[in-house]
Amino acid sequence: MTMQTLAFEAKQLCRTQHSGVLSTQSTSMPGYPFGSIVPFVTTHTGDVIIYISDIALHTRNIKADSKVSLTVFDPSEDDSQANGRVTIMGDASQLTDDAEIALCSEQYFQLFPQARAYQQTHDFHFYKISVARVRFIGGFGKIHWINPEFWQTESQEWQRNTAGMIEHMNDDHQDAMQLILAHFANVQTSKVTMLSVFAEGAHYQSAEGKIVFIPFANACHSPTEVRQALVAQTKACRDALAETAE
Fold this sequence. Notes:
Pfam families: CREG_beta-barrel, DUF2470. There is one protein chain. Strand 10 (about 200-205) and strand 11 form a beta hairpin. The chain has helices at about 5-15, 55-65, 100-110, 150, 165-170, 175-185, 225-245; strands at about 20-25, 35-40, 40, 50-55, 65-75, 85-95, 125-140, 140-145, 190-200, 200-205, 210-215. About 35% of the residues lie in helices and about 30% in strands. It folds into 2 domains: about 5-155, Electron Transport, Fmn-binding Protein, Chain A (Pnp Oxidase, Chain A); about 160-245, Split barrel-like, CATH 3.20.180.10. The strands form 2 sheets. Strands 1, 2, 3, 4, 5, 6, 7 and 8 form an 8-stranded antiparallel β-sheet that branches. Strands 9-10-11 form a 3-stranded antiparallel β-sheet, sandwiched between helices. The protein is an alpha+beta fold and about 250 residues long.
């Protein structure tokens, strides 16, 4: 298995989960790590974005020492030791560029719409964790370090303009998205909204508010490959329905 494949699988796990354990260097207990639960999103290029308050202990710790780690795992699994988890080690810094803030906030608020209310306060800011190294455990015996050159990817033009792709799916392919959510996530709903699309898959939200990430079989590097992946998923759903009906 190549490093690119391992990074692809690790990113899919990160996109499936919406919160992780952020470990910072404690300022009140020097030498000890301080763990806290934070929502996060992973950008197209592999950076991690968190939205945190100035008064939070982890933010104070970051301002004193930017070295952090974020551990991501599936808490619903019975045997956590036998299932996948990812630890992202890196340096956290507050975003100050308006264009970067706008891009990251759009992606973040798509997955965490309730966080928009925090904009009314003046002490919440976006921080980016620039990845130094990743530890990926894909299950028993599948343990790897992933270096930045395999984790980080170059930003592509289509990734900066996914709004049209998402709008098209929401306007014209409601039936296909309902099939995808039912088949791959066992979520039955009267309406589906695509929230985001990445090289690794797409986020959907049901009418009841449940947000689910459905991974692609392979990494997509262009709008054409994304369309092909969605067509393949829809076909798999319809084939499964046909087999059930027989």
